[in-house]
């Protein structure tokens, strides 16, 4: 599952997933997130977007999944993540988490990470790093 | 999980203030539910250990359970440092405090710091940035 670039740092493969209301409802339950803006509630329907928005942490989960696929246990024992959410994800939406190698030094690979929707709108940006050696 | 009646009022929290600590025990059913929700495969490492971001998400859930949060609060940024595997079912101590609180351009910005410990050893840390408009509207 782990692909390696010629430089030694793993190549992080994109992760694409449909984010729809049933998935958000399952996530709200699993992550113990009661925020009504993620469900079909008056707060969401009367809010700024007129509909529920996806959990930011659900989008971030795709980045973590991509890093897990590339680094395995090393992601859980030495991974670093720093992101900002740039725009809300309005379901149903297909999103893709990508990571591009930014640097590698002393056995640690750092990546620029982003999550985009199917129209190319950037929903999340940041950096992720983990030891590979 | 029900919201308790003894939650800390977010509006009155100050820099350095601590949220009452709590313990997370993430069992196999909870890991399965998290992975089913995110769509990540349940095979391999996550058959024995808790995904680190699941711990981070559940720690945030614990924070929301203990802090009375206004409806217009927006999660704007997040940092994590993952430093150790957490076996499924192991008790993880969660300590959360307010690292910073400021007001800028009509928005109140708060940074929570989280520390996760297993048997006294730090297995993860995090910083959570949230923003709230002074008038309660989403400041996006």
The major β-sheet of chain A equals: 5 strands, antiparallel
**Could you tell me the radius of gyration of chain A in angstroms?**
16 Å
Taking pLDDT < 50 over at least 5 consecutive residues as the criterion, the unreliable ranges of chain A are none
Helix content of chain A: 25-40%
- Give the class-level CATH name of chain A: Alpha Beta
**What is the number of E strands of chain A?**
7
What's the shape of chain A? elongated
Helix content of chain B: 10-25%
Most extensive contact? A-B, 39 and 41 residues
In DSSP terms (H or I, runs of 4 or more residues), the helix count of chain A works out at 4
Terminus-to-terminus distance of chain B:
29 Å
Residue stretches of chain B low in confidence (pLDDT < 50, at least 5 long) are: none
> How much beta of chain B, percentage-wise?
35-45%
Order of helix and strand elements from N to C terminus of chain B: EEHHEEEEE
Shape of chain B: elongated
Order of helices and strands of chain A: EEEHHHHEEEE
The CATH superfamily name of chain A is: Hotdog Thioesterase
- Tell me the domain tally of chain B: 1
**What oligomeric state best describes the polypeptide chains here?**
heterodimer
């Amino acid at each position: 599952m782990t692909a390696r670039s010629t430089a030694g740092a793993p190549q992080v493969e994109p992760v694409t997933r449909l984010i729809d209301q049933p998935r958000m409802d399952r996530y709200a339950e699993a992550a113990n997130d009661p925020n009504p803006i993620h469900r079909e509630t008056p707060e969401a329907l009367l809010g700024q977007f007129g509909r529920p928005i996806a959990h930011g942490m659900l989008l971030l989960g795709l980045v973590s999944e991509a890093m897990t696929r590339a680094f395995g246990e090393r992601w859980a024992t030495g991974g670093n993540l720093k992101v900002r959410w740039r725009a809300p994800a309005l379901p149903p939406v297909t999103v893709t988490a990508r990571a591009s190698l930014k640097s590698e030094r002393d056995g640690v690979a750092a990546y620029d990470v982003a999550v985009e929707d199917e129209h190319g709108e950037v929903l999340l940006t940041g950096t992720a790093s983990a030891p590979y050696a | 999980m029900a919201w308790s009646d003894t939650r800390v009022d977010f509006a009155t929290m100050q820099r350095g203030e601590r949220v009452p600590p709590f313990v997370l025990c993430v069992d196999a059913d909870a890991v399965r539910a998290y992975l089913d929700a995110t769509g990540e495969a349940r095979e391999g490492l996550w058959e024995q250990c808790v995904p680190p971001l699941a711990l981070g998400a559940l720690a945030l859930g614990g924070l929301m359970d203990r802090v009375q949060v206004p409806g217009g609060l927006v999660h704007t940024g997040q940092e994590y440092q993952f430093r150790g595997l957490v076996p499924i079912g192991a008790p993880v101590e969660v300590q959360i405090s307010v690292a910073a609180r400021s007001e800028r351009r009509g928005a109140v910005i708060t940074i929570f710091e989280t520390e996760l410990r297993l048997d006294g050893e730090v297995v993860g840390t995090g910083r959570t940035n949230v923003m709230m408009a002074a008038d309660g509207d989403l400041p996006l």
